UniProtKB/TrEMBL annotation:
This is Serine protease. One of its GO terms (molecular function) is serine-type endopeptidase activity. Residues 114-325 form the Peptidase S1 domain. The active site is at H156 (charge relay system), D206 (charge relay system), S284 (charge relay system). Belongs to the peptidase S1B family. InterPro entries: Glutamyl_endopeptidase, Peptidase_S1_PA, Peptidase_S1_PA_chymotrypsin, Peptidase_S1B, Trypsin_dom. Keywords: Hydrolase, Protease, Serine protease, Signal.
Length: 329
């Protein structure tokens, strides 16, 4: 994460405490921007500030890195399940500008998902299980490593715009398979979400970048590798794959493994892509991967259109999303 000047909204001692209401951000006359960046401490990094930094620096080319593959011992993780109830992380309703209804998940017709047998190969090695702790519950999402210590996921996985509260803790486990893992488990120490996600729950803003601490001296991306992000405009009729950790399949099997499938982007608008790939709660935050395994969007949930058709979908990697993610890295 590059250095920027912060507009501090509240002072806290520890990272990853619940966020509070950001009333000032709702007034665009005060100079706020939908892609202003808010971190886990409630500090705001203004859009114009990080864009100046991006404009004056040479952005590194997004490259695929498969990681060292170093085998690390499993670590003792907090047992959230023992003390707190499970929280189904359902996306909020969209903004008034998006006339679609949204559900947490959709299995469309016959379930076409398959289990991933080998998560030691890319891109499955970079797809990660994220276990989340809230003040009164726990849950999980999916994310994808995009740098040595950064993960891309959904905004609703870390901040609930209805309550304005954030997670109190989280761990990221790359390549979790049959409830075992080889590449370490990494504590989330910070996160970055768009201010408009906190203020409105806008579907097109439902993404987040997580920052990870090293585990026994190793960074997650150095060990498991990371996926490149690809800026896009139109991806209709392109093939994408969406893999993650769906709760229905995990509960049926009794073990945590990756599931997913490939298909075609059937509809899109300027900021969202829609496809009839089957997903379920727990796959929130999964990457939309193109045929080159580049990230072109972030899966969010199920959408039902006014014509009655059901799709899954989420934010595309349009320029402001791409810029936000690059700045957060």
């Amino acid at each position: 994460m590059k250095k920027y000047y912060f507009s501090t909204l509240l002072l806290v001692v520890f990272l990853l405490i619940p966020l509070t209401v950001f009333a000032d951000e709702k007034d665009t006359k005060n100079g706020s921007h939908p892609y202003d960046m808010v971190n886990s401490k409630g500090e705001v990094i203004k859009y114009e500030d990080y864009m100046k930094e991006l404009d004056t620096s040479s952005l590194k080319k997004d490259e695929n890195y498969n990681g060292s593959g170093k085998i690390l011992p499993e670590r003792k993780l907090p047992n959230y399940k023992k003390y707190k109830p499970y929280k189904s992380l359902s996306p909020s309703v969209p903004s008034g500008a998006i006339q679609k209804s949204i559900t947490p998940y959709v299995v469309i017709g016959e379930d076409g998902r398959r289990v991933v047998d080998d998560t030691s190969v890319s891109p499955f090695k970079q797809i990660s299980y994220i276990e989340l702790e809230w003040a009164d519950s726990w849950g999980w999402c999916t994310g994808t490593l995009i740098g040595k210590d950064t993960v891309l996921t959904n905004g609703h996985c870390v901040v609930d715009p209805d309550t304005q509260q954030g997670i109190t803790g989280a761990y990221v486990i790359p390549g979790l398979n049959n409830s075992h893992y080889s590449y370490g488990a990494y504590q989330v120490v910070d996160y970055f979400v768009p201010s408009q996600w906190i203020n409105t729950g806008d579907s097109s803003q439902d993404f987040a970048v997580l920052k990870l601490a090293p585990y026994i001296g190793e960074n997650a991306g150095d060990v498991a590798g990371y996926r490149p992000i690809r800026q896009v405009t139109n991806i209709a009729n392109q093939t994408v794959k969406v893999y993650g950790y769906p709760s229905d399949r995990i509960n049926d099997a009794g073990t945590y493994s990756q599931w997913g499938m490939s298909g075609t982007v059937g509809r899109e608008d300027t900021s969202l892509a829609f496809y009839q790939l089957d997903t379920f709660n727990g796959q929130s935050g999964s990457a939309m991967l193109n045929s080159s395994n580049e990230i072109v969007g972030v899966h969010r949930g199920g959408y039902t259109f006014s014509d009655g058709q059901s799709f899954n979908g989420g934010p595309k990697m349009i320029k402001p999303v791409y810029d936000f993610i690059k700045a957060a890295q």
